[in-house]
Write a structure and sequence with these properties.
Elements lengths: L4 H49 L5 H11 L3 E6 L2 E6 L9 E4 L5 H13 L5 E6 L8 E7 L1 H53 L15 H56 L4 H24 L13 E4 H16 L4 E6 L5 E4 L1 H22 L3 E9 L3 E8 L6 H5 L17 H11 L3 E8 L2 E9 L5
Parallel strand pairs: 3-4, 7-9
Antiparallel strand pairs: 1-2, 1-5, 4-5, 6-8, 9-10, 10-12, 11-12
Length: 460
């Protein structure tokens, strides 16, 4: 119980209530002591009225009056005359004098605590003002024991009442915390546990119901997190299923392309000049497709294979990319250009770099053709101090806002209707395999520009 939130609230409430009662206890005891002494002064003054009425009283009556007043003697000062009105033998000398006419609140509290802490018998003198203008001063001498007994009795009753109040207050707070905080928190924890058993089940997502603002905010945050997690899990499941399907398709497609590769040998033997010119490109395309299918069969790890680094001419590779795209453009008003030094050699995996540039150019071509406008796509490259930089720029309509928010995430960054959103995700992974980065430099109504930066050092 004491390790629970409500149990700790119960303990803290009792502690704080008792602390408050202690702060009240000291002034209360001081006030009780002052009232007790004033009462003795008043009773002593009443006893002295018998002597004022009759100058001669019987000694037995005088002793009885003093015993009823609880004092040993009474001194009155009237008209600047100090007079011992009633008296009896003192058991000893006076130990301490209290003047109630001058004592402030702090002095009263200090004297009360001293009297409670001192168990020994003491003879005390008390001075105060008489009641009903009965004089200028009244003074009595009395034992301290009755005062201490009365203080102990009063203090014990105050402590018992304080403990009862603190217990009731703590119990009420315990019930309030249990209802307002602990139960809603346990409900949230229960939702989390049920959701953890089957996170793909959207029905187990929490529905905010709390009326407490902070708890409702926690429930809404949990709902948002669970919703995103469930969607992510469902997406990963679809990706896994897609991976299995792609692997099977790639396996059969590889066999088909391998057969097609055998026929290209005969095509190369043709005497037709056009066939001779196109045959090497056809062979290269089929070889590249076979390689892609073989890589896809390693889809189990959902990763691209480690790049095989070689030194190759970038201008020739980009020319192959653009030649393939020109066939796809056909008669459309779209021009392709390149600005790459003819002798620029870079180190990387030519197949993966080809796919990366081809994906960017293909995306740009599809965006421009989809807009129905004319345009231009250019590929440029330059050498910097520690990296090769390749820029792919187009004059298309720019990327929509939704595509920019999830640009490099698969199935979320699609820039055109019906697109799968895989192109840029593939490019990002291919470039990252080379230790490089892919960045969106600019996009808008005047076009889009991407930058591939490949470090000159070895990968990894």
């Amino acid at each position: 119980m004491f390790n629970s939130l409500s149990g700790r609230f119960l303990i803290l409430t009792m502690v704080f209530v008792m602390l408050a009662e202690v702060l009240i206890f000291v002034p209360s005891v001081a006030r009780f002591r002052a009232d007790f002494l004033l009462d003795r002064l008043e009773r002593a003054q009443i006893a002295s009225l018998a002597l004022l009425a009759d100058a001669m009283i019987d000694p037995d009556l005088e002793r009885e009056l003093l015993e009823n007043a609880g004092v040993y003697n009474v001194v009155l000062q009237r008209d600047a005359t100090r007079e011992l009105v009633l008296s009896s033998p003192l058991p000893g000398s006076v130990d301490v004098t209290y003047d109630l006419r001058q004592d402030g609140p702090f002095t009263l509290m200090k004297d009360a605590m001293v009297r409670l802490a001192d168990p020994g018998p003491r003879l005390i003198r008390v001075l105060g003002y008489p009641q009903q203008d009965g004089g200028e001063l009244i003074e009595v001498t009395m034992e301290s024991a009755p005062l201490r007994e009365a203080l102990l009795d009063y203090g014990l009753r105050v402590l018992v009442l304080s403990a009862f109040i603190s217990l009731v207050a703590a119990l009420l707070l315990f019930l309030a915390v249990q209802r307002l905080l602990v139960r809603p928190i346990k409900s949230v924890v229960g939702h989390m546990q049920r959701y953890a058993e089957a996170p793909e089940d959207m029905r187990r997502i929490i529905s905010p119901t709390s009326r407490v603002r902070e708890l409702r905010e926690a429930e809404e945050a949990l709902q948002s997190m669970q919703t995103q997690l469930s969607q992510s899990l469902r997406q990963k499941e679809r990706l896994a299923q897609l991976g299995g399907a792609v692997a099977r398709v790639s396996h059969d497609l590889r066999n088909i392309l391998t057969s097609a590769q055998l026929f290209t040998d005969r095509i190369e033997m043709s005497e037709d000049p056009a066939v001779k010119r196109m045959a090497p490109k056809l062979v290269g395309s089929i070889t590249r497709a076979v390689s892609l299918c073989e890589s896809t069969l390693a889809f189990g790890k959902a990763e691209e294979p480690t790049p095989v680094l070689t030194q190759f001419n970038l201008a020739e590779l980009v020319n192959e990319v653009l030649e393939a795209e020109r066939l796809a453009i056909g008669d459309h008003d779209l021009s392709l250009s390149e600005d790459i030094p003819a002798t620029l050699q870079i180190r990387g995996d030519p197949e993966q770099i080809y796919r990366a540039i081809a994906n960017l150019v293909r995306n740009a071509r599809q965006a421009i053709l989809g807009s129905g406008q004319s345009g231009e796509i250019s590929v440029a490259a330059r050498v910097e101090e520690d990296a090769w930089v390749i820029d792919v720029t187009d004059t298309g309509p720019g990327l929509p806002l939704k595509a920019r928010e999830h640009l490099f995430q698969p199935f979320q960054g699609g820039a055109r209707k019906g697109g799968a959103g895989l192109g840029l995700a593939i490019v990002t992974e291919l470039v990252r395999n080379h230790g490089g980065t892919l960045r969106l430099l600019d996009t808008g109504e005047t076009g889009t520009s991407f930058e591939i930066r490949l470090p000159m050092g070895d990968v990894g």
